[in-house]
UniProtKB/TrEMBL annotation:
Residues 1-18 form the signal peptide. This is Fimbrial adhesin MrpH C-terminal domain-containing protein. It comes from Serratia ficaria. Keywords: Signal. Residues 166-276 form the Fimbrial adhesin MrpH C-terminal domain. InterPro entries: Adhesion_dom_fimbrial_sf, MrpH_C. GO terms for biological process: cell adhesion. GO terms for cellular component: pilus. The lineage of its organism: Bacteria, Pseudomonadati, Pseudomonadota, Gammaproteobacteria, Enterobacterales.
C-alpha cells in the first residue's frame, strides 16, 4: 500500500472584504517599538470599473493594495502594502487567459488577469508600523507625469477581526496509491481532511518540506507531488490559500506518483507535515 500522512495545526487573523477586493491583515504583535503586520491580497474583482490611470503612462505607475491607519474619521499614512502590478516586467501578458498590458488596460478590473499572471495574489508581506486603533485597506494607484506624483484610493474597506473560529476535525489525511507493479509510470490519488469554520474564512496550508517532489525510495526514482485542490498559490511552492464557506468543509489534497523504474519493492509509507491556519 502506498500512503502519505499529513498532520495539521491551526492559528487566527484579521480580515478586510470590500466590494471589489479581498485581503487579510494579520497582527503579529509588538516588535522593536513598532507592531508587526502581515498583509495578504487574495483577489481583486474584474468588475472594478475604475479608470486605469496607468493607461498610456510614460513614466512610473503602479497599483497596490495598501493598509492605512485611520485616526478619528481621517485616513493617515500608509502602514503596509502589496504590489499588484507595475511597469517592471512582466507588465503585459499574451496567453489564452491573459492578454493585457498595464499601459493598455482601460479599467483596473481589466488588469486582474495580469495581476494573477504576475503571481500577485496569496503572497503574504510582513511589515512594521506604528499602532493605530483603526485601519482600512484600499487599492492605491500611483503615477508620475511631468515630474509630478499623483495618487488615488479606491474600494476602501475597514479592517476588522474575523473571529473565524476554525477547527480541524481530522488529525491526518491519508493518500493511498494502492498496489502497483514497477512498470507503472504514474498514478493519481487524493485524500482530504475536514475543517469547520464559524464564518467564511481564508485558509492557509503550508507544507514544512518540499511537496512537489517527495522522494519515496532510496534510489530517488519513485516520487510524489501534492497539491491542495482549488487553491491559490502562495509566495512559495510550499504554501497555498483556499477560501471556505462557513460550516464543515473538506479540503482535498491531490497527489501524483511518478515511477522511473525504481528498484524499490514492497509496501512503503511516508509522512508530510503541513500547518493549516486562518490566513
Amino acid at each position: 500500500m502506498k500512503k502519505f500522512c499529513l498532520i495539521m495545526l491551526l492559528g487566527c487573523s484579521f480580515g478586510a472584504n470590500s466590494t471589489f477586493h479581498e485581503a487579510d491583515v494579520r497582527y503579529n504583535g509588538p516588535a522593536s517599538g513598532y507592531y508587526s503586520f502581515t498583509i495578504t491580497t487574495y483577489n481583486v474583482s474584474p468588475l472594478l470599473d475604475i479608470p486605469n490611470m496607468c493607461n498610456g503612462a510614460k513614466y512610473a505607475c503602479d497599483v497596490r493594495l495598501i493598509m492605512q491607519a485611520v485616526i478619528g474619521w481621517n485616513p493617515t499614512h500608509i502602514m503596509a502594502s502589496n504590489l499588484l502590478v507595475d511597469k517592471n516586467p512582466p507588465s503585459s501578458c499574451h496567453t489564452a487567459d491573459c492578454n493585457v498590458s498595464l499601459t493598455g488596460a482601460r479599467t483596473l478590473g481589466e488588469l486582474v488577469p495580469l495581476m494573477k499572471y504576475r503571481g500577485a495574489f496569496g503572497k503574504p508581506s510582513t511589515q512594521f508600523a506604528a499602532y493605530s486603533q483603526r485601519y482600512r485597506t484600499c487599492i492605491l494607484v500611483t503615477w508620475v507625469q511631468a515630474q509630478t506624483t499623483s495618487q488615488y484610493y479606491v474600494d476602501c474597506s475597514p479592517v476588522k477581526e474575523t473571529n473565524a473560529g476554525c477547527d480541524i476535525n481530522d488529525d491526518n489525511a491519508i493518500i493511498d496509491f494502492g498496489t502497483f507493479s514497477n512498470d507503472v509510470k504514474t498514478r493519481q490519488a487524493n485524500g482530504s481532511f475536514r475543517v469547520h469554520c464559524a464564518n467564511d474564512s481564508n485558509i492557509r496550508v503550508k507544507f514544512l518540506s518540499n511537496s512537489t517532489k517527495i522522494s519515496l525510495s532510496d534510489d530517488g526514482k519513485l516520487n510524489a507531488g501534492l497539491k491542495i485542490r482549488n487553491s491559490t498559490p502562495g509566495s512559495t511552492e510550499l504554501e497555498s490559500f483556499i477560501k471556505l464557506p462557513a460550516g464543515e468543509q473538506k479540503i482535498f489534497i491531490d497527489a501524483e506518483l511518478s515511477n522511473d523504474k525504481t528498484s524499490h519493492v514492497g509496501p512503503f509509507s511516508a509522512s508530510v507535515v503541513a500547518i493549516v491556519e486562518v490566513a
